[in-house]
Amino acid sequence: MTKKFIATLLIGLGLLGLQGGAQANEGGAPWDKFPTYKMEDMAALQNGAKLFVNYCLNCHQASFMRYNRLHDIGLTDQQIKDNMLFSGGKVGDLMRTTLDPKQAKEWFGAVPPDLSVIARSRSGERGSGADYLYTYLRTFYRDETKATGWNNVAFPSVAMPHVLWELQGVRVPKIEEIEDPHEHGLKTHVITGFDQVTPGKMTPRQFDDAVGDLVAYLQWMGEPAQSERFRLGVIVLLFLSVLTVFAWRLNAAYWKDVK
After folding, report:
1. Are 114 and 64 in contact (CB under 8 A)?
2. Longest CA pairwise span in the chain (Å)
């Protein structure tokens, strides 16, 4: 019985490892670095929360986050009611969507995932979860062969449409044929950039900045107390350092006569 349990456990861990590896290596493009300074910028976090509510919360939900937790990024109850709550909910409600899961599965092929901890769950060998999201949200392109009409460099054949296309505009990929590094004589196609077909409401720089705000909010939402935890950690380490010096000198004073 014990051997059977251990074997089952090892198989399960192996499958989890394979799944995690598949997620970490999803797509062929390197992950761009998320601008981490935005995590300390309240204006960026507030704008990210606004983008999240307007563009993400229609299909996805954040069922582990309450609207009133936005107090931590400087929003008042009135600001939350005016800019975040559009369905007559309460400030203490969870960030849930009204989208029916059955309908979502019919439309998209799968129920859109909960985004409460998406930034923490997507980290891998290529970078942090924030790096992945920052790359993913900026690398959509038009692909008429897909059901949604869109594809993505970081997540090929993704079922999600490009919800931010009005801000970014419509782009098509620049494809280059190169030698396959793993098999001699075989050619492979890689995306080296994009051509802008129609402009968006934002310039490329403005769009990248807005996506940075959105990802900063998603990262913050995964652990709202992260910044406070870091600050407390520094204080505790400083306190322990000072305490260590006092303990060392006190120990020397106690043992000087014995020696």
Report:
1. yes
2. 86
Which residues on neighbouring strands pair with residue 79, listed in sequence order?
none
Picking from 28, 29, 48, 32, the residue whose alpha carbon sits closest to that of residue 40 is 48
**pTM, two decimal places:** 0.78
**Where do we find the tokens 């306190």?**
239
- Compute the distance between CA of residue 7 and CA of residue 186 in angstroms, rounded to an integer: 41
pLDDT tens, 41-66?
999 999 999 999 999 998 899 999 99
- φ, ψ at 217 (rounded to 5°): -65, -45
Query: Which residues share a beta bridge with 178?
Result: 188
Helices and strands in the chain: count of H runs, count of E runs:
9, 6
35-42: which pairs have CB atoms within 8 A and are 24 or more residues apart?
35/134, 35/212, 35/216, 36/130, 38/212, 38/213, 38/215, 38/216, 39/216, 39/219, 39/220, 39/226, 39/227, 40/227, 41/216, 42/73, 42/74
Record the tokens describing residue 220, joined without a space: 């913050």
**Three-state DSSP class for residue 177:** strand
Q: Among the ranges 29-38, 56-65, 161-170, 218-227, which has the highest mean pLDDT value? A: 161-170
